[in-house]
Amino acid sequence: MQSTLPRVLYFEDEAVMRRIITRVLEREGVQVRTAGNGSEGLAIAREWLPDVILMDLMMPDMDGFEATRALRADPRTAGAVIIAYSALDSVLASVRAFKAGVDLYLPKLTNHAELVATIRERAPKRVA
Length: 128
What we know:
By secondary structure, the chain is of the alpha/beta class. It has one domain (3-122): Response regulator (Rossmann fold). Helices cover 43% and strands 22% of the residues. The chain has helices spanning 15-27, 38-48, 64-73, 91-100, 112-122, and strands at 3-4, 7-11, 31-35, 52-55, 81-86, 104-107, 126-127. The strands form two sheets. Strands 3-2-4-5-6 form a five-stranded parallel beta sheet, with helices on both faces. α2 runs parallel beside α3. The longest helix has 13 residues, at 15-27.
């Protein structure tokens, strides 16, 4: 059996950040889809069933805290690894994120190599 690439869904309202992180992950062989807001991300997650979700916490429409709670409440997406990936670098924000259901909290200042390593480490092993 052959292992397949991890599937990552990145919730991010800033188009430049979406493009940068998508390029970084694709260069490392990760399958990536992106969502510009919480509602769009929920729809993609329910259809595509990603292994890992990178969740921006500050988004219009539906913030990352609310989107995380919705993902955890849905049996189709409840098991995904959710990594809060946010510019909110504070203890209060991380506590709120963990209470909402994230598995890990990374500030956006995390270097790209560490981000990729974390995704590879946390993603469940998929078999083709």
